[in-house]
Amino acid sequence: MNEHDSERISGLLESDGYEQTSATDDADVIVLNTCCIRENADNKLYGALGNLKELKESKPDLQIAVAGCLAQKDKNLIQNKASHVDVVFGTHNVHRATELLSEARVNGPITEIWDEASDDFEEFASALPAKRESEFMAWLTIQVGCDNNCAFCIVPSVRGKEISRPVEDIVAEAKVQAASGVSEITLLGQNVNSYGRDLSLQERRDGQDVKIRPKFADLLREVGAIEGVRRVRYTSPHPKDMNIDVYQAMEETPTVVPHLHFPLQSGSDSILAAMHRGYTGEKFLEKLALARQTITDLAVSTDIIVGFPGETDDDFERTLEIASAAEFDNAYTFVFSPRAGTEAAEMTEKFCDPDVVQDRYKRLKTVVDRSSLAKNLARVGRTEEVVVEGPSKKDPNFLTGRTVHNKVVHFPVEKFKPGTYVEVKITEARKQYLLGELVRKVASPTYKTKITVEAA
Ligand code: SF4
Q1: What pairing do the DSSP bridges indicate for beta strands 408-412 and 434-443?
Q2: How far is CA 299 from CA 224, 331, 348, 390, 406, in A?
Q3: By alpha-carbon position, which residue is closest to atom 8 of ligand 1?
Q4: pLDDT, tens digit, for every residue of 94-107?
Q5: Which of 144, 147, 148 to mutate to test the pocket of ligand 1 (most atoms within 8 A of CB)?
Q6: Which residues lie with the beta carbon below 6 Å from any ligand 1 atom?
Q7: pTM score > 0.70 for this model?
């Protein structure tokens, strides 16, 4: 969500006449878009602002803006701590970025934080231009905010209550994206399974007007049917709200990829209850088994936190058991670190011994790495469709791409533009990636390459 906000801020600035630069010294505007999900976001922000102070002194017309959830949380504190900041805006008024910069140029420093998102989606989602990092992949916001209260998570307090975006807006934006050459769309929400709870659709049934709630499963089907869209992903679902409708939509819609990110967080029922996650370890495994029964060749990734306050050795053993039984393709593992403003950050008397947590973390890594490697080895010998992302960052003799299962594949370099779909025969597997050989090209990218035209 934060990265997508950065794209939107970038797009707004570009439509206001700015150009992107990689040289900080050349910039007329610098926007620091913060994310307090990340560890030490405040230290990093104030460190970066300290480094920019000298530049601002030597270049007084430079404008510095701070955006994102740390700005939402810290409000006036930012300009109190760093008076050289021109504009502070939060997560709910991203669309005001360029106006605020203009106002600050005339009237001096501004902090503008909205407590809630506007219900008018024209203002803050589809209508905003976005400068996408990729020509062929795009994020598509379907919902903002979150009505859950996971004890470790800062999102509800900085992103506000859940608001779903109307189906027709989402589908319209997806069509525009597809028409501009986007072939892979990721639907983005904090809890996509609760999409539509706050919306109702008018429908005529048996001669009567009835109101029904739009469902996430139907949205998957609609976006998946748009011409030009080859892959639809989504993030993130919540295990407590996941249901068979979504699995069936994934199975029945060929463009919706067979990859599920299913955040476990912990395997211990008492820790899951303390986190307010709304499911038990057994329930998680049941829902996962149903997903695997319903969706052909499903890959599953997850998030797991180690050392949540109060986690005992027995709790952790349960996490190992559930993680092992779940046989994840990939797991993002984190050591618990308190986020100011969350319930878990207040549980200081229950914080775990850091050495014990490090040891648990290593043991968990061993378990999840073992299943990642086993899952990747099982793909050796298969031919997979891969979308080319570009040259490998480590070895220019290889191209890097991704399979439908979101697995990274490296294969010997060929002249393919990013966004080309190819088939690759998988020859080797490591725990984090696959190696392969090109079989054939499947489809060219459909986005247009911009050519600069200069006056003679
Ligand atoms: S569902 Fe996700 S975004 Fe919402 S509170 Fe829980 S972890 Fe945070």
Answers
A1: parallel
A2: 19, 11, 37, 23, 8
A3: 153
A4: 889 999 999 999 99
A5: 148
A6: 146, 148, 150, 153, 155-156, 190-191, 238
A7: yes
